[in-house]
């Protein structure tokens, strides 16, 4: 029987790989967000399809037959999430983009309360309040230095869309294989991003110098990150996996300091701290 440490390690590695996403995006300055998202998801879809054709072929066909349409709808939502997140990384600081995008648990709790009448505890309500105050603190300093209010806003939109995916897609995910279900979701997302690219971006083939970065983006934060995060749920509670995912903004911020000389401002640090504490409370950490 695998030890608890094994699953903690998986969740921690997932959070670390998530943290590389913004770094890879920054190394693609000449490519628009829609094109980046398209390549990221289509390559990840190909990798996952190869894996499932070898190990889960029957499950893959069953997934497309029974859950293909619902997964495609979720893919459209996730496509919007990726477009907003990638664009936010290009506009604002890496710290702001990753911290604000990780407000997903806060928005998911609000959506559960609004749409499903899930009662919020006083501690969860306090957590939501602290996170929203932290978000305002980050917005307050936007425009100073490297931060940008447009990018900050896009990061919040990315968090909102991810929260919608988690809340309305919960049943689909619970009834599906964690790997095979991602293929129709990612395929639908990539198609949406390609179409958006033709209307609002500038789709093109990647330059030779961009290929390693695109592959890194598709493999590490997308394929490995999401797979390890799903796998860690076998031995951890969802809130524990979510807490480990908060390594993303920490790793991304630490990498951005030497790579892009992005030194976090005081208001951003205070806002991030409030958001982290708020998420900690919203997730209902066991005492």
Strand content: under 5%
Radius of gyration equals: 18 Å
The ordered string of helix (H) and strand (E) elements is HHHHHHHHHHHHHH
Question: Unreliable stretches, pLDDT < 50, 5 or more residues?
Answer: none
Structural class: mainly alpha
Walkthrough of the structure:
With 287 residues, this protein is mainly α. The protein has one domain. The chain contains 14 helices and no strands. It has helices at 4-19, 21-26, 33-55, 57-91, 94-101, 104-116, 122-140, 149-168, 170-174, 182-200, 211-232, 238-245, 247-260, 266-282.
Question: What descriptive keywords fit this protein?
Answer:
287 residues, mainly alpha
Topology:
Layout: H1 4-19, H2 21-26, H3 33-55, H4 57-91, H5 94-101, H6 104-116, H7 122-140, H8 149-168, H9 170-174, H10 182-200, H11 211-232, H12 238-245, H13 247-260, H14 266-282
Explain briefly what this protein structure is:
The protein is mainly α and 287 residues long. The protein has one domain.
């Amino acid at each position: 029987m695998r030890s608890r440490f094994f699953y903690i390690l998986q969740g921690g590695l997932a959070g670390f790989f998530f943290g590389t996403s913004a770094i890879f995006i920054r190394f693609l300055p000449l490519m628009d967000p829609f094109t980046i998202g398209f390549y990221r998801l289509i390559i990840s879809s190909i990798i996952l399809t190869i894996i499932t054709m070898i190990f889960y072929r029957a499950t893959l066909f069953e997934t497309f037959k029974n859950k293909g349409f619902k997964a495609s709808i979720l893919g459209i939502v996730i496509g919007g999430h990726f477009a907003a997140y990638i664009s936010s990384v290009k506009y604002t600081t890496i710290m702001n983009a990753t911290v604000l995008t990780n407000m997903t648990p806060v928005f998911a709790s609000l959506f559960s309360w609004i749409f499903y009448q899930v009662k919020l505890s006083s501690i969860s309500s306090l957590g939501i309040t602290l996170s929203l105050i932290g978000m305002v603190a980050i917005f307050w300093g936007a425009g100073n230095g490297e931060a940008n209010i447009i990018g900050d806003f896009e990061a919040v939109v990315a968090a909102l869309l991810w929260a919608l995916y988690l809340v309305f897609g919960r049943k689909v995910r619970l009834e599906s294989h964690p790997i095979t279900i991602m293929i129709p979701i990612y395929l639908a997302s990539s198609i949406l991003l390609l179409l958006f690219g033709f209307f609002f971006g500038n789709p093109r083939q990647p330059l030779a110098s961009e290929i390693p970065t695109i592959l890194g983006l598709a493999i590490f934060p997308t394929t490995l990150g999401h797979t390890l995060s799903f796998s860690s749920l076998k031995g951890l509670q969802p809130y524990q996996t979510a807490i480990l995912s908060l390594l993303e903004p920490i790793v991304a911020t630490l990498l951005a300091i030497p790579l892009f000389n992005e030194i976090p401002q005081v208001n951003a640090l205070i806002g991030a701290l409030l958001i982290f504490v708020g998420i900690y409370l919203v997730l209902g950490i066991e005492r």
